[in-house]
Design a protein that fits this description.
Keywords: Membrane, Transmembrane, Transmembrane helix. By secondary structure, this protein is mainly alpha-helical. Helices cover 82% and strands 0% of the residues. It has one domain.
Length: 109
């Protein structure tokens, strides 16, 4: 049975893949960063793209954490259990399916 830290690393890795390759999430996060760029004094296109990827990964982690939080609440736990981490990992994997398909299509060209 893998430890909790390895599950958290897997969640972060899947979220980063989703932030990088999700064709549905990238336009929205890019637009959000471009709208915020003048206020943040960002003029570098690679930095804006990097922040868009990070925003996409953060959105993935937050959205995938909702089922885990509901699981904890419904199970009556007062702290995060191993099962909650697994629910979080599964939700992250499900959210990352479009990104995995897109990445596979890019690699198999």
């Amino acid at each position: 049975m893998p430890g909790r830290s390895s599950i958290i690393l897997a969640i972060a890795g899947l979220a980063l893949i989703n932030g990088l390759f999700n064709p549905l999430l990238l336009p929205q996060t890019s637009a959000a960063i471009i709208l915020l760029a003048p206020g943040l004094l960002l003029r570098s296109a690679p930095l804006i793209a990097f922040l868009a990827y990070l925003l996409g990964a953060g959105v993935t982690v937050v959205l995938a954490g909702l089922p885990a939080a509901l699981f904890e609440r419904l199970a009556g736990h007062d702290h995060t259990t191993y099962g909650s981490y697994l629910v979080w990992l599964c939700a992250t994997a499900i959210l990352s399916l479009p990104a995995a398909a897109f990445a596979a299509a890019l690699l198999l060209r």
